[in-house]
Design goal:
By secondary structure, the chain is α+β, with helices and mostly antiparallel strands. The protein contains 6 helices and 13 strands.
């Protein structure tokens, strides 16, 4: 199995991310590629093209502001029979800190309609789209999206590159799932993880 760990970034990366990446457990033939660009969709398209050219089986996408456990790649691969594109669980860095998951996503050339996910199941569950902070994609999905649309990550309908890819992939027949057992942190001025989100939600509920 050949896997590319793909890291798009803008500038310097946080120390927490560097430590997570340095200690991640590799699986199979595993390489790492960084790609800097002023526009993130350009970085993702270049990294995806590299994975296709190198004959990789999977790409593990890691944003440079994520913190993740060392067994992240192994755990994502363990649930690949439950969905094609697999994300861990992480949360926005700004209020209301919702999960970077979407229960609905519909896109046209002019606009997009989506719903945030609010209820978090305990087991692996399906979503309409996800952020790409920590996502495992089969290279077959990248190739099929490129073949059908001539593009993979360029934004459409006014949404970001991650949701645009998710929508294209779903049109190609690929499913998207989340494994909530993978605890991820989102680094900002402070780190947002599930414990932070649940404490925030509880406090907001008590204030009503």
């Amino acid at each position: 199995m050949k896997i590319l760990i793909a890291v798009p970034y803008m500038d310097q990366v946080p120390a927490q991310f560097a430590q997570s990446l340095a200690t991640i457990d590799k699986v199979g033939e595993c390489g790492i590629a960084f790609q800097v660009a002023s526009l993130i969709y350009q970085s993702r398209n270049k990294l995806a093209t590299l994975a296709i050219e190198k004959g990789c089986d999977y790409v593990l996408w890691l944003d440079s502001d994520m913190v993740f456990p060392r067994d992240t790649l192994k755990k994502l691969l363990e649930v690949k029979d439950k969905g094609d594109i697999i994300t861990g669980m992480y949360f926005r860095r700004v209020e209301p800190y919702h999960p970077c998951l979407f229960s609905k996503l519909e896109i046209t050339d002019e606009c997009a309609d989506w719903d945030d996910l609010h209820e978090i199941p305990d087991e692996v569950f399906s979503v309409a789209a996800c952020g790409f902070g920590c996502v495992l994609t089969p290279v077959s999905a990248l190739f099929d999206v490129l073949s059908k649309y001539g593009d993979m990550f360029s934004p459409i309908g006014g949404v970001g590159e991650d949701l645009s890819f998710c929508w294209r992939a779903r049109q190609c027949g690929y499913s998207i799932v989340c494994d909530p057992s993978i605890p991820l942190g989102h680094v900002g001025h402070y780190m947002v993880d599930r414990g932070f989100y649940e404490a925030y939600s509880k406090a907001k509920g008590e204030q009503k």
